[in-house]
């Protein structure tokens, strides 16, 4: 695949996905990545913005990761990682994407695949591969920053009952720190909407 990553092995039993629905804002409510531990970053959120297909006809998204540092009581202004996703899947693996960073992150790539999702795409479980900076693992995305507990219980049950997901998660999956309102009310940029 090129870049700083290792080979990603997709799940052949991943749930079928409508790529047109995989867009917009999702809050990262659970993850395996220690970079999202509360002592490092809070309020992680993904924004997928569909772009015109690339020259090979592959689906293409701008992929923006939003986050803050500090605490919910004393949060920083919004920070972002910017990148682009290229759909590198096939009919067997339609929801297989490769992320590449922008700027100083342009040499870093990471493959990921949507494995399970709600019928209305309200939530999604995404597996990702290893990079030179991060191990393989799982993210859980939700349209709400603090989902109902019964939904989180169901998502966690799915992870436990799905061998591919269970292996990816191991014992490393944890909840991120999120604000119910999305943006902490006392953030320096509270009341402002980012424009992408």
Short description:
This protein has two helices and nine strands. With 196 residues, the protein is mostly beta strands.
Question: Topology, pairings included?
Answer:
Blueprint: E1 24-31, E2 42-51, E3 60-68, E4 79-87, E5 96-101, E6 109-117, E7 123-128, E8 137-142, H1 149-161, H2 163-169, E9 174-175
Antiparallel strand pairs: 1-2, 1-8, 1-9, 2-3, 3-4, 4-5, 5-6, 6-7, 7-8
Helix pairs in contact: 1-2
Explain what you see.
The chain is mainly beta and 196 residues long. The protein has 2 helices and 9 strands; from the N terminus they run E-E-E-E-E-E-E-E-H-H-E. The chain has a single domain (19-175), classed as Beta Barrel (Lipocalin). The chain has an 8-stranded antiparallel barrel. Helix 1 (149-161) crosses helix 2 (163-169). 36% of the residues are buried.
